[in-house]
Design brief:
By secondary structure, this protein is mainly α. The chain is built from twelve helices and no strands.
C-alpha cells in the first residue's frame, strides 16, 4: 500500500511539475485584492469540513510536500499545520488566480495544483490545517535586543512596523496574516527574500514588500531562527 501511494505521489508530482514547467511564464494575470473585495470573499468562505479536508489532503497528495498532518518533512516546503483558516483559503485562491507566483517551479506547481479546487475544497483544506498542531523547529532561544526590537517595536526610521502587530505576540497570526511560530527557518528566509525583491506580491497593499525592503540578511536570518523556535 505504501509503495503504491509513493508511486502515485511521484507520478502526480511529476505531472504537476511538467505542467508547471510548461506554463511557468504563462500563469494567469490576476488583479490585486482590494480590502473591500477581500472582505466580501472572507464573509462568504464556506464552512469547512475537517474530515473532508483530511481526505483531500491525502487524495490530492498535498501530503507529498506538506507532510501527513500538514507538518512539512522538508525545509523546502512550508508547514501548513496550525495556520489560520482565512490565510490558507486566500493563499489557495491566490495560487488559483495566479496572483501568487514567485516565478519558480515550486509556485508553478501550486498554481497547477490549485486549478481544480472548488471554494468548498479550499475551505475544507483550510479547516483541516487549522486543526493540526505545529511544534517548534528549533530549540528555544533568547531574543537579541535588535531582533526583539523588530518583533515588538519595529523600526520607525525605516518605516518597519513591529512583526507582532500583525503576526501576533507569539507568532500565532491573525486572519489573513500567517502564523510564523514553528515555521522552518529556510522557508521563512526564502519567503522574506521573495517579498524583498518583489517576486511575491499577493499580500493586500503589498505591505510585506515595504517592510522587508530595508531588512538586512542578518536580520532576516535572526527573525527566521526566532520564529522557528516558537510553538503555536
Amino acid at each position: 500500500m505504501k509503495k503504491t501511494l509513493l508511486i502515485s505521489a511521484l507520478a502526480l508530482t511529476t505531472g504537476f511539475t511538467q505542467l508547471a514547467s510548461a506554463n511557468e511564464h504563462a500563469a494567469p494575470q490576476a488583479q490585486a485584492w482590494t480590502l473591500q473585495q477581500w472582505h466580501q470573499t472572507q464573509n462568504n468562505i464556506p464552512n469547512g469540513n475537517i474530515s473532508k479536508g483530511a481526505e483531500l489532503h491525502k487524495q490530492a497528495l498535498c501530503m507529498t510536500c506538506h507532510g501527513e498532518n500538514g507538518v512539512a518533512p522538508s525545509r523546502n516546503a512550508p508547514s501548513l499545520a496550525g495556520n489560520n483558516i482565512d490565510y490558507t483559503f486566500k493563499t489557495l485562491k491566490d495560487y488559483q488566480s495566479g496572483l501568487r507566483n514567485e516565478g519558480h517551479g515550486k509556485s508553478a506547481v501550486m498554481i497547477a495544483a490549485a486549478q481544480s479546487l472548488t471554494q468548498q475544497d479550499m475551505a475544507d483544506l483550510a479547516y483541516f490545517y487549522a486543526e493540526q498542531t505545529l511544534q517548534s523547529k528549533a530549540p528555544a532561544q533568547a531574543l537579541s535586543s535588535s531582533t526583539e526590537r523588530l518583533v515588538r517595536k519595529g523600526d520607525v526610521k525605516r518605516m518597519i512596523t513591529p512583526c507582532a502587530s500583525c503576526h501576533g505576540v507569539h507568532g500565532e497570526g491573525n486572519e489573513i496574516t500567517p502564523a510564523l511560530a514553528g515555521q522552518t527557518a529556510h522557508y521563512f528566509i526564502r519567503t522574506m527574500k521573495a517579498y524583498k525583491i518583489k517576486h511575491r506580491t499577493n499580500d493586500i497593499n503589498q505591505g510585506m514588500g515595504q517592510f522587508t525592503h530595508d531588512l538586512t540578511d542578518e536580520e532576516i536570518h535572526a527573525l527566521a531562527d526566532y520564529y522557528a523556535s516558537l510553538s503555536k
